[in-house]
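Q: Could you fold this chain for me?
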Amino acid sequence: MADIYAKAKAEMEKSFDSLRTNLGTLRTGRASASLIDNLECDYYGDKILVTQIAAVKIPDPRQLCIIPYDKNDVKSIVSAINASQIGITPTVDGQNIRLVMPAPTEERRVELAKKAKGYGETTKVAIRNVRRDLLDSLKKEEGISEDLIKRGETDIQKATDEAITKVDSLVKEKETEIMSI
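A: Sure. Below is the predicted structure, expressed as structure tokens.
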């Protein structure tokens, strides 16, 4: 019973981590290695993450440089980038692959900001679902006094409020980043 606040925080933190990952995939005009974190390419017949077969560097704020460990993987990585929904055409510079981030248009930035808000709302729903599940399990426990149940409900609500504030803060920060040129 005493660790219900810690359990609520841990469950809600998982949702927050998922939000952080989703927001990292939004292209803001700045180079970010998280843009290709989930990008898979063909590697001798298997699908493997690009980040496992290449180094990713950011030489300047608007450029991402992918340096394959094996020069034979360049073609596979380029085709994976072209097939993805990143929306950037890679430039092959010898053995290096360069992704130059174009500045998004105003319309695109507004669209990305809406997408960030959508990710935030989805995370809030997940956090509220965790709250509901914990409250249900608390009420189903046998032999607990009403005072302990009320204290548990208060702790769960406190954890929920903290998590939602944290989500709002992160989404607001990402929106500011997206809307800046």
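A (continued): Residues 33-100 form a domain with the Gyrase A; domain 2 fold (CATH 3.30.1360.40).
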